[in-house]
Design goal:
Blueprint lengths: L6 E5 L12 E5 L4 H6 L10 H9 L7 H10 L2 E5 L1 E7 L7 E5 L3 H7 L4 E4 L1 H15 L3 E4 L11 H16 L7
Parallel strand pairs: 2-3, 2-6, 6-7
Antiparallel strand pairs: 1-4, 4-5
Helix pairs in contact: 2-6
């Protein structure tokens, strides 16, 4: 029997991953049902985010939450979602309504004004609608790593994300 689709109120329960050395902020939309179950960003095994990021940074694919946080911080990447809470059916970005935007100012207070990359079209549209004018920062829309974006194979994602991320991550002046 197919599960009935029903609305639920989802609130972002993951703290942002960032520190004063972060050079770029990647924003997802809202945590999927699977991410909420595992307690961290991009928790669905079919989501290609961690595989893509490992390939771009030349690292092993992280398995644990601690390994994922370490990969982000070691590579000067901040991570959060554009939504603090919303109504959603399952994990369908297209069903999102009644959005309460995330408090991105608290991240930027730690990182300073850094470039923002949005993982997918919904994240980008919601950033533009709720955040861009207030923050005074324009974001760049990136292809979604979601399995729903099946037209983009992993190698295509690695190439596109690499073109955006590597120039930011390889900037001089980080003191290393």
């Amino acid at each position: 029997m197919k599960e009935e689709k029903k609305w639920e109120r989802v609130t972002q329960e993951f703290a942002p991953v960032c520190d004063e050395n972060s050079r770029v902020l990647i924003l997802g939309t809202a945590p999927s049902r699977k991410s909420r179950e595992v307690g961290f960003y991009y928790g669905h095994p079919q989501n290609r985010f961690w595989k893509m990021l490992a390939a771009v940074t030349g690292e092993e694919v992280p398995q644990t939450i601690e390994e994922k946080k370490a990969l982000l911080l070691r590579n000067h990447i901040a991570l959060h979602d554009v939504i603090h809470s919303c109504d959603i059916i399952g994990s369908s970005d297209s069903s999102i309504r009644n959005v309460e935007p995330a408090d991105l100012e608290r991240i930027l207070a730690v990182t300073g004004n850094i470039p923002i990359l949005c993982n997918g079209g919904t994240s980008y549209k919601l950033f533009v609608k709720h955040q861009e004018k207030r923050l005074g920062i324009q974001a760049q829309q990136m292809p979604s790593t979601s399995p729903a974006n099946a037209a983009w194979k992993l190698d295509m994602l690695v190439e596109a994300w690499g073109e955006a991320l590597l120039p930011i991550l390889n900037r001089e002046g980080d003191g290393e």
